[in-house]
Automatic annotation (TrEMBL):
It catalyses: DNA(n) + a 2'-deoxyribonucleoside 5'-triphosphate = DNA(n+1) + diphosphate. Keywords: DNA-directed DNA polymerase, Nucleotidyltransferase, Transferase. The keyword Repressor does not apply. It comes from the Bacteria. InterPro entries: DNA_Rep/Repair_Clamp_Loader (IPR050238), P-loop_NTPase (IPR027417). It comes from Psychrosphaera aquimarina. The lineage of its organism: Bacteria, Pseudomonadati, Pseudomonadota, Gammaproteobacteria, Alteromonadales. This is DNA-directed DNA polymerase. Its EC number is 2.7.7.7.
């Protein structure tokens, strides 16, 4: 059974696989689907040698279906961080012999959430791999990982559909929604299912009104502050506006305002996670007030 992996850069035969890979891709669901197929292939007990092939009915495949496979470990930090204790658990897992006398597979989802100490603790495992073990670090972009981690792993990139392809699938969605998703089809599907499109449209319209000085800062900030997704969307719109001004200023040679706005937005993004309570509203208001004369 071929899982039709969307990972063209992998070698064809399992014997040629490296022991550690960084799997890079914006689309989280697509990442997981690919890594699930690869995991099944590596743990299948039939005589499978082609990457992506698995039988689907052996004891190992059935254990994976039931989420009880003793030679598979998933570390997931969708929220919060992956700490040293999580990495120690991985090391302990791989130090034991395979229960089914086959491969062992560890998947670290949201690897970008590893603390620096956790990343350093993982180095020893990556440097001294045990026989027949495979480690996959899943992240949106490998640039967020420590250089020492990068130097000990091979890379897999899972490409998204193009904007034009997504427009064919979701013709009702505006370009700014597709752009905000980073061309992630699973994100778009989720937003459509959760009926978020109207919210995106309303925030976009408020942003345009704000740019035209038709509404004050507090109207748009009050609209998004209680909704992290819409807050991120507003920041995306500001960033997109800055990029437009930079392209325009490249022709005139006057990019001071756009560069200043970009620095202000970068500073806000770096500190916003540390801001709590009512201070979030104040910080957002200060950002809008600061960038307002620079991007209008």
């Amino acid at each position: 059974m071929n899982n039709s992996l969307d990972i063209l850069s992998l070698p064809k035969h399992q014997d040629n696989l490296a022991h550690a890979y960084i799997v890079e891709g914006i689309d989280i669901k697509k990442r997981l689907i690919n890594i699930q197929g690869l995991t099944r292939s590596l743990l299948c007990q039939t005589e499978q040698t082609i990457v992506g092939d698995f039988c689907g009915h052996c004891h190992s495949c059935n254990l994976l279906n039931a989420d009880t496979h003793p030679d598979f470990m998933m570390v997931n930090a969708d929220e919060g961080t992956i700490g040293v204790d999580d990495v120690r658990a991985i090391s302990q897992f791989l130090s034991n012999m395979s229960h089914l006398s086959g491969n062992q597979v560890v998947v670290i989802e949201h690897a970008e959430n590893m603390t620096e100490n956790a990343s350093n603790a993982l180095l020893k495992t990556l440097e001294e791999p045990t026989n027949k073990c495979f480690i996959f670090l899943l992240c949106k972009t490998k640039s967020v990982l420590l250089p020492t981690i990068l130097s000990r792993c091979q890379f897999i990139q899972i490409n998204n559909k193009s904007k034009d392809e997504l427009k064919l699938t979701y013709p009702e969605l505006a370009d700014y929604i597709i752009g905000f998703s980073n061309n992630s089809e699973s994100e778009l599907a989720k937003w459509v299912e959760e009926q978020k499109v109207e919210e995106f449209t309303e925030v976009y319209q408020l942003f345009i009104q704000w740019l035209k000085k038709q509404i004050p800062n507090f109207v748009i900030s009050n609209k998004v502050l209680s909704n992290p997704l819409m807050s991120s969307f507003l920041l995306y719109l500001i960033e997109k506006r800055i990029r437009q001004l930079m392209l325009k200023s490249a022709k005139t040679g006057n990019s001071t305002s756009a560069l200043t706005a970009s620095k202000l937005l970068t500073k806000y993004n770096q500190t916003s996670n540390l801001i709590k309570g009512q201070n979030k509203a104040l910080a957002m208001s200060q950002l809008l007030t600061s960038v307002e004369p620079l991007i209008r």
